[in-house]
Amino acid sequence: MEVVAALHRFVWGLLADWVCFVAVFLCLGLNFGPWRLIPYGLRQLWSSLRNPGPAIGSAGQPGAADGELDSWTAFLVTLGGTVGIGNITGTAVAVTLGGPGVLAWLWAVSLVGMALKFADTALAVRFRRPQGDGSVLAGPMLTIQRGLHRRWRWLAVLFAAMTVLSAFGSANGLQVGQLAAVAAQDLGSPPLLTGLVTALATAAVLSGGLRRVGRLSAVLVPLMVLGYGLAMAVLLLEHAAVLPAALDQVLKGALSPGAIAGGGVAVTVNTAVRLAVFSSEAGTGSAAIVLAAARPADPLRQGSIAMLANLLDTALCTALGLLLIASGVAGGSAAGRGPLALVDAAMTWAGPGWLGVSHLAIVLFSFTTILSAGVVAERCVLFLGGNRWRLPYRCCWCGALVLLAPVGGGSLWLFAELVEALVVLPNLLSLLLLSPFLFQWFADQAPPLAPSPSPNP
Fold it and tell me: What DSSP state is assigned to residue 240?
């Protein structure tokens, strides 16, 4: 474990600067287009919600190559994967390690990180490949293989392999570990039983592929995100009197001269980057694997929709972070306490009933993340080995849920973040290599960036 911790510190010490550099570089090269595209992305998302278009049939039917899901459903699948325990226990870890100032830097990193998610998705749509069964294979691995010279195929293979490994750590082991901890605490359920139930439910959904995951996400994700968001808004309003002091701590922790001189800001920024990558998946390219498979095959539309998840994800992290700071549980007394214990303490401080809200959110967020990440990892497995590996992969994915449930999240945090870094590195390298193509394509868009396309061209 000491070796993993040392490697984690070394890799993330380099990667934090790398993520910020590439994100700022893309923002400048795109002339801050992702920020200006926020209203456009919202309009396209609303258009897809109102008129999702006809269902996609099997291979050979009209429109089968256009995409597997409408933009709204694809967005919900990715949002279900983005909004996971990184928004709850991950926020507790970040605020404890980086201090209150991590919330301010989280917003800075997330805003420039919108360019990463936009670029990943736009390029993935451009280089996606329809399959014979009516599905669409897309993502950074296809972007690298089809957008760069064939000598870069090793980079595509590396990305796909690291994404699969990362999914088993951060989106399988961590999620089911936290879910099992909550079930044991509230219901007295043995971790193995929780893992088995989760595995059976996951197998039932994943057996229907991306479309079945999309149908479930279309129902579950809006309810859980809106419900949790409204609950946090009500909670913060109930404790509005202590929020100014919490915000003051955030600003002082982010920008105080003492923190800058003492190197505290470097630690805070590093922690903010790790939280942004882990919670909003900025720079990992995983959201592009699902959203680039949506219809229509419009890079501008899908890229603009993809980056909206950053704003929502960061808002949810901020709400809980403010509660942790206001309650005082993330201060010096946090040493030696697990992230779930910190969240429980903050919710108990907030008042009766709020502990149950946070535990329900953990269960729902964990399950949707397991499903979404399961689809993402499966597409990478199909890229590496073809369709013959689909069933063995699903068996391994569900089996790991049973085996990793008793392990718990704590011992997997360092490993999960370390492997996440090994996903980000090849993806960011590919974005830099393809940036001239990306900038030229974006500059060619008709002003004022693009007309609103029909959802079913």
Answer: G
Element (H, E) at 156: helix 153-166
Which residue in 104, 106, 85 sits closest to 170, CA to CA?
85
Sign of CA dihedral 343, 348, 354, 356: positive
Q: How far is CA 307 from the centre of its chain?
A: 11
What is the helix (H) or strand (E) element at residue 130, kind and residue range?
strand 129-130
Q: Residue 203 to residues 29, 170, 340, 389: CA-CA distances in angstroms? A: 43, 19, 27, 15
The Cα 432–Cα 340 span in angstroms is 38
The DSSP annotation for 338-404 comes to -HHHHHHHHHHHH-TTHHHHHHHHHHHHHHHHHHHHHHHHHHHHHHHH-GGGHHHHHHHHHHHHHHH
Report angle CA 157, 294, 434 to the nearest 5 degrees.
45
Q: φ and ψ at 337, to 5 degrees?
A: -100, 140
Q: How distant, in Å, are the alpha carbons of 50, 78, 451 from that of 46?
A: 6, 16, 15
Altogether, the residues listed in the chain come to a count of 457
**Does domain 2-48+69-442 sit in CATH 1.20.1740.10?**
yes
First to last CA, the chain: 53
For position 163, what pLDDT does the model report? 93
Question: Where along the chain do its domains lie?
Answer: 2-48+69-442
Nearest to 306 by CA among 68, 114, 32, 445: 114
Q: Measure the CA–CA gap between 200 and 394, rounded to whole angstroms.
A: 11
pLDDT in tens, 165-214: 988 887 888 888 888 888 998 888 899 999 999 999 999 999 998 999 99
Structure tokens at 126: 């451009």
What contacts 333, CB < 8 A, 6 or more positions away?
Answer: none
Per the structure block, which two tokens stand in for 217? 């996400």
φ, ψ for residue 331, nearest 5 deg: -85, -150
Task: Tell me how many degrees the CA angle 364-370-372 measures, rounded to the nearest 5.
Answer: 100
CA distance 253 to 102: 8
- Cβ partners under 8 Å of residue 67, min gap 6: 56, 74, 136, 293, 294, 295, 296, 297
d(C-alpha 42, C-alpha 307), whole Å: 10
Q: How far apart are CA 411 and CA 398, in angstroms?
A: 20
Provide the pLDDT for residue 54: 55
Question: What distances in angstroms separate CA 125 from CA 25, 143, 302, one per listed residue?
Answer: 21, 9, 8
pLDDT tens digits for 137-149? Answer: 999 999 999 999 8
Pairwise CA distance, residues 389 & 380, whole Å: 11
